[in-house]
Design a protein that fits this description.
The chain is an alpha+beta fold and 704 residues long. The chain has ten helices and 38 strands. It has a 17-stranded mixed sheet that branches.
Length: 704
């Protein structure tokens, strides 16, 4: 008898211990291995962002072999090909701290985007790459060769129909020519590399004045925006910290008691009463999945990262979590981009969606990040709406309105309540043709209802299609691999003979309203001048700024890295050290024996007027020191860029034979030591409530 009681007690003990695991399995039962693939440990998908559009920007839709109008806060990643129209400009922010800007009639395509590498094709037009990272290598391909740029660098690309020009602004930059595979160093602030289908020569290294002024205005805007350190900067990971000011202006952080403990969460306040996430904006199909295009200023970061939850009669946003310790309560979505982390439901006439909590599965046709499931067979995924916390908060629209407007909040279906959602709606893993009521033709790819005024020609499409094979091969690209590939190329000097025309291109857009003269080539650098924009001195990543906007990250150390020296780096070989907050200026000159001597500019505190001028010498990397310039506080001078009217009499031969300076570094008169850059604030965990334990998942699925 006693033995039977022991067996009975043991049975219930085992059953009780296994209950939580069984309950957890029931919650994830929808994720049947036959129906969806949960790729645990897979690398997160990185997707960039269109942060600014001026004029018209078009996106190529492979499914339709056509172009649609792109808008601000639309994604830029995967295999996206974009084309800026006549007079258009655009800016893109990538999550690995690479910034890209393009000018008029420019075609770019994403080839690969990784944490330590970005490969982007520039088929034609004007582009500026700014690498604000500490580890990401940039590879920019063109029809004539490709550029490799190390972390902390910046450069301009002018890609014409018959030639390309690479202009270094700062950092370690190299150009590999397609003709013979030769590798050329691009000296920041000095002569450029000009190449066509036959040879490579040294160019003047001057940028287009209007283009540089526009870049300077963007640099100033971001500098002023990032100087203000509000509360949001404490909680946003570095990859999205540039949105700190927008969150500070549009809402506030509050202490919210949720799931058994107090949490710091953000709530928008500049919204209408009854506002809900994923309502002000529209859905568009993006590589088979539905992507949210927000209409609010704060919409991009809060709808593609982190998660929303309902508490105290408000919607709150929890930022993404960079890392979670083993055994810690699961709260917050990992730092990964999602097209739109919602659940779906539908009826005979309507379709609805609702935000997901971190532990609720996100279904899509592709794997996007933690707790996402790639659906292989929609029919086999059973969605039980009663298990989703916010299903009763679903936002519902009629099928006919789903693709009809840029602001879905204006077409919300009436007379939808909890009883209606329970009795008339069914769950679906992803929006199917049935769930959409047959809606969705070509318009499902629209980012906006606006139509293109013109479309790129067949020549533009040819480049896009040829890149498809490269994209497949680039799936395993890495910064290390890009470096190794470039290092194998033979180091060469640009040809002294022959002439290459400066890049010019004809408009590749056809259609009314393009404003382009058909068949007429236009120079891409119509007003050449020396670089004056802030890109030459603003190398700091968001959230890592020092006073005066100077660089706190030097160029990558190692062989061949001689530019972008930090103001506080001590020079061990020749020259003096400036502690004024400016970067050391250098030039490289070749002696008759081929030995290169580094020449440092002097008189950085000289206050003469005038502009920088170049010597008539065609020797690569040699620049005369004529005229005078004024060094402003906080300004950075790149290698080969000279100033100082008091030095006008210095001869080039003296520069090349300049003796090494004393290793004892002297501080220039009037210069102050640059302050140490402040360490970027880390995401802080919200304080726990006294006596509050971990969240209770059983309770999560119960109350609503």
């Amino acid at each position: 008898m006693k033995s039977s009681k022991k067996v009975f007690l043991l049975f219930f003990t085992i059953l009780f211990a296994a209950a939580p695991a069984a309950w957890a399995r029931s919650q994830a039962r929808d994720a049947s291995p036959r129906a969806a693939d949960h790729k645990q440990g897979k690398e997160n998908v990185l997707v960039g962002r269109i942060s600014l559009v001026e004029g018209e920007l078009l996106r190529y839709v492979p499914e339709e072999k056509d172009w649609v109008v792109a808008v601000k806060d639309a994604p830029f990643g995967l295999e996206d090909a974009l084309y800026s129209g006549e007079g258009g400009k655009a800016e893109f922010l990538l999550p690995n701290s690479i910034w890209l800007r393009i000018g008029s009639n420019t075609q770019v395509q994403m080839i690969a985007l990784k944490p330590d590498a970005a490969e982007i094709d520039v088929a034609v037009g004007t582009a500026r790459f700014i690498d604000k990272s500490s580890k990401t290598v940039v590879k920019a391909t063109t029809p004539f060769g490709y550029v490799v740029a190390e972390p902390g660098s910046a450069f301009d690309l002018y890609v014409g129909d018959e030639s390309v020009e690479v202009i270094g602004i700062r950092g370690n930059i190299q150009f590999i020519h397609d003709v013979d595979g030769a590798r050329y160093e691009v000296l920041a602030g000095s002569l450029s590399i000009l190449a066509d289908a036959r040879q490579a020569t040294a160019g003047e290294g001057k940028v287009d004045g209007e283009w540089d002024d526009w870049n300077a205005s963007r640099d100033t805007m971001w500098s002023q925006s990032l100087e203000v350190k509000g509360e949001s900067a404490q909680y946003l990971p570095e990859g999205i910290r540039e949105d700190s000011r927008i969150l500070d202006e549009s809402g506030r952080w509050e202490q919210v008691y949720y799931e058994g403990e107090y949490r710091r969460a953000w709530r928008p306040v500049s919204v209408e009463a009854g506002w809900a996430p994923y309502t002000v904006g529209r859905w568009t199909e993006y590589y088979g999945d539905y992507c949210w295009i927000p209409g609010e200023p704060f919409g991009y970061v809060t709808h593609h990262y982190g998660n929303w939850f309902w508490a105290n009669d408000y919607w709150y946003w929890a930022p993404p979590v960079v890392s979670v310790s083993v055994g810690a309560p699961w709260w917050g979505v990992g730092f990964s981009w999602y097209p739109g982390r919602v659940g779906w439901m539908y009826s005979d006439v309507s379709i609805g969606w609702f935000p997901l909590l971190p532990w609720e599965p996100f279904y899509a046709h592709h794997w996007w990040g933690p707790r996402s499931f790639a659906v292989t067979n929609v029919a086999l995924v059973n969605i039980n709406l009663s298990r989703y916390r916010f299903a009763n908060h679903a936002f519902v629209v009629n099928h006919n309105n789903f693709f009809a407007t840029n602001n879905l909040s204006r077409v919300r279906a009436a007379n939808i309540n909890r009883a209606t959602l329970t009795t008339q709606f069914r769950g679906t893993a992803v929006p199917t043709r049935t769930a959409l009521g047959g809606a969705g033709g070509r318009e499902r790819f629209n980012f906006t209802n606006a139509q293109p005024t013109g479309r790129p020609s067949q020549s533009a499409l040819g480049r896009v299609e040829r890149n498809q094979a490269r994209i497949t091969q680039a799936s395993g690209v890495s910064g290390r691999g890009i470096r190794q590939q470039a290092s194998k190329a033979r180091l060469a000097r640009p040809s002294g003979g022959g002439s290459i025309s400066t890049p010019s291109s004809t408009s590749r857009v056809s259609g009314t309203g393009t404003g382009a003269a058909s068949g007429q080539a236009r120079s891409l650098n119509q007003n050449p001048r020396s670089v004056q924009s802030g890109a030459s001195r603003m190398s700091t990543a968001p959230g890592k700024r020092s006073s005066g906007g100077t660089a706190v990250q030097g160029a990558r150390r190692g062989a061949g890295s001689r530019s972008g020296v930090s103001t506080q780096a001590r020079v061990k070989r020749g020259g003096t050290q400036s502690r004024s907050g400016t970067s050391l200026s250098r030039s490289r000159a070749s002696t008759s024996s081929g030995e290169r001597a580094r020449v440092q500019s002097r008189g950085s505190s000289a206050r003469g007027g005038g502009q920088m001028s170049r010597s008539g010498s065609r020797a690569y990397g040699v620049q005369s020191q004529r005229g005078s310039g004024q060094l402003r506080s906080g300004e950075s001078r790149s290698r080969g860029s000279y100033s100082g009217g008091r030095q006008a009499g210095m001869q080039r031969s003296q520069q090349m034979r300049a003796p090494r300076q004393s290793p004892q570094m002297q501080r220039s008169p009037g210069m102050q030591r640059a302050p140490q850059a402040q360490r970027a604030p880390q995401v802080q965990r919200a304080p726990q409530a006294q006596g509050g334990g971990g969240h209770n998942r059983q309770g999560q699925q119960g109350g609503r």
